Amino acid sequence: MTAETAHHPSGPLVLALSLAGVAGFVDAHLFLHVTNVFVANMSGNMVRVGIFAGDGQWVAAAASAVALAAFAFGVVAAIAHHDRQLRMKGRVRPDELLVVEAILTLSLPIILILFDVEFSEVADPIHVGIIAIGAFAMGMQASALRRVGDIAVATTYGTGTIVRIGEKIALSIRRAERTSDQRRSTTIAVLSAVLLSYVAAAAAASLLGSSPLLLLIAPGTLAVFVIHIRRSATFQMLFAESRRRRRERQTVDS
Predict the structure, then answer these.
(1) Is position 219 within any domain?
(2) What whole-number distance in Å separates Cα of residue 132 and Cα of residue 101?
(3) Which helix (H) or strand (E) holds 11?
(4) β-pairing verdict for 10-11 and 147-148
(5) Which residue of 140, 188, 206, 248 is surrounded by the most CB atoms within 10 Å?
């Protein structure tokens, strides 16, 4: 059996910021211009399921529930891919997950244009299908990058990030003893940057308008990073370094 930490790919901060931006942009665009369901912010969907179920609005509740399920399936698919790569080759291939995500996000504007999809507060089957594709893609992305160096990050949601920022600030103020060599100020800076990237991209989606072609920003960004990861010695070195650190931690733990 492979250790669970080996399934948590690490990468550079610029990749984490870009992925958070993709999530924020896609999430906001679909919420504002397709139907009021989140594809990345699953905390919002859980609240919406409860509210609509309590109000007897079962169609609206079902749409958010579909997003939750699709996101979970995306995570399952991504982790299964990591596990298969670890068992066969001894290393994860997050770039392959980003390729799949790019294809899925590319399909979103194509579907919106081909079927002339307009915004609807009540999700029709076509809206639900779009949401399912988007949420599945975001679930895969959530597992494609889990760390920046040794700092755990989340590129598709912010609640846990806010909790960790608050925790690090409180412990810094209290001058509590650190359990690792990682400076708390560095962790706060990295987590804050990722969170701000998500928010800034969501704001951009709101400002730029409703054209489905704007969604091409997402697969375009992903494609650039996939090409760069596969060609860049620096990126390969960073991914290799993350694997080395995980193996060292596993050796120490054992």
Answers:
(1) yes
(2) 13
(3) strand 10-11
(4) parallel
(5) 140
Q: What is the pLDDT of residue 178?
A: 74
Residue 16, phi-psi category: left (phi > 0), alpha (psi -120 to 50), beta (remainder): alpha
Tell me the three state secondary structure of residue 211. coil
Burial of 166 (0-12, 13-18, 19+ CB in 10 A): exposed
Position 179 scores a pLDDT of 66
From CA 61, how far away is CA 30, in angstroms rounded?
A: 17
- The residue range of the domain holding 66 is 9-253
Q: Which residues make Cβ contacts (< 8 Å) with residue 203, sequence separation at least 6?
A: 28
Counting as low any pLDDT under 50, the low residues of the chain are 1-2
Evaluate whether residue 124 is within a structural domain.
Answer: yes
Distance (Å, rounded) from C-alpha 53 to C-alpha 59?
A: 9
State pLDDT tens for residues 164-186.
999 999 998 988 887 665 688 99
pLDDT of residue 233: 57
Other CB atoms within a 10 A radius of the CB of residue 209 amount to: 11
Question: Residue 125: inside a domain, yes or no?
Answer: yes
Tally of structural domains, the chain: 1
**Domain-embedded: residue 14:** yes
Strand order of the β-sheet with 147-148 is 10-11, 147-148, 151-152
DSSP for 19-80?
HHHHHHHHHHHHHHHT-S--SS-HHHHHHHHHHHHHTT-HHHHHHHHHHHHHHHHHHHHHHH
Q: What is the pLDDT of residue 241?
A: 59
